[in-house]
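Quick review question:
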């Protein structure tokens, strides 16, 4: 397979490149390095560039005969999307359309889209399956839903087949500690907790202790980055064999509370972690858990790293490496 991975220098994209290389795919990565790192791309061909550059896209597709394109090039910060919606609509929607138009032009009609549970908005029931109403409550979620709707229209009009993978909380790191999570600023719970454990952060805050959950803290569904990438690889194979577009929710189906994640991190790291309590954040649902039954059934997807201990262990090995590099 010849695969173009856009956003392949970022957290999820870089792990996907590794998995594709393991599967003997011929990989080209396109990334503008606004949020990714060149040294996270561990093989294949690398092109530094932006999806806004239509001339570059034409050049890339003219010179390569891709079998499929995988998209990981969206901006992902909910809070930022609220204060800077133009940034999100320009990149997540307009730039994605640029890519789709060039794909259609050159007859590359297999597309894997990194979507999100944010398209569903406030959950009406949990776990969340594919039939759940889609009512995003922030620009980030809306941009992702717009692209999913665009993909439906491009399938009907141009025969572009796609799989949208809506995941909940990507976590963990490469088990061999070659790559991992490096967001600046970091906003994800597990790396924030581990930064507090390593001393790169003073403490971790719990935003609200009065949710309707067993321990009063929010519950989230964490999926190991390697399991996520395996689902993407299976999605490519399914798309090529069935020639049918689809969408799947991806998660472990098990929710863990903020307190449970902190307690597990203390156990895995053997470190004390200073925990502070803060007020609730607007828009934080009590529980977000995926129903991934459809992906398991149709993609034959079986997560290999569903244990929270394992997810945090791999993240901790990466955090220790980052700490050593920064010291």
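Suggested answer, residue by residue:
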């Amino acid at each position: 397979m010849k695969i173009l991975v856009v956003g392949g220098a970022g957290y999820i994209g870089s792990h996907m490149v590794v998995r594709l290389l393991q599967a003997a795919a011929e990989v080209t990565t396109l990334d503008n390095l606004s949020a990714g790192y060149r040294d996270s791309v561990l093989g294949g061909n690398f092109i530094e560039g932006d999806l806004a550059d239509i001339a570059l896209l034409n050049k890339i597709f003219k010179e390569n005969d891709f079998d499929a394109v995988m998209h990981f090039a969206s901006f992902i910060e909910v809070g930022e999307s609220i204060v800077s919606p133009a940034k999100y609509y320009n990149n997540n929607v307009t730039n994605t359309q640029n890519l789709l138009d060039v794909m259609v032009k050159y007859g590359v009609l297999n597309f894997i889209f990194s979507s999100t549970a944010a398209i569903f908005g406030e959950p009406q029931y949990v776990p969340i399956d594919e039939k759940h109403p889609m009512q995003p409550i922030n620009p980030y979620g809306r941009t992702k839903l717009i692209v999913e709707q665009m993909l439906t229209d491009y399938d009907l009009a141009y025969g572009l087949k796609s799989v949208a993978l809506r995941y909940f909380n990507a976590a963990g790191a490469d088990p061999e500690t070659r790559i991992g999570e490096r967001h600046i600023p970091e906003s994800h719970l597990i790396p924030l907790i581990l930064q507090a454990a390593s001393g790169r952060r003073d403490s971790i805050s719990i935003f609200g202790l009065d949710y309707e959950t067993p321990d009063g803290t929010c519950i989230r569904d964490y999926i190991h980055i390697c399991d996520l990438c395996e689902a993407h690889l299976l999605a490519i194979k399914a798309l090529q064999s069935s020639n049918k577009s689809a969408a799947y929710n991806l998660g472990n189906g098990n929710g863990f509370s903020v307190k449970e994640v902190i307690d597990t991190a203390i156990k895995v790291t053997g470190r004390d972690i200073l925990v502070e309590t803060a007020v609730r954040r607007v828009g934080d649902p009590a529980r977000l858990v995926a129903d991934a039954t459809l992906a398991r059934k149709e993609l034959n997807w079986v997560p290999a790293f569903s244990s929270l201990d394992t997810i945090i262990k791999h993240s901790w090995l990466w955090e220790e490496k980052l700490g050593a590099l920064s010291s």
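Why it works: Residues 173-221+253-326 form a domain with the UDP-galactose 4-epimerase; domain 1 fold (CATH 3.90.25.10). The first strand starts at residue 2 and ends at 6.
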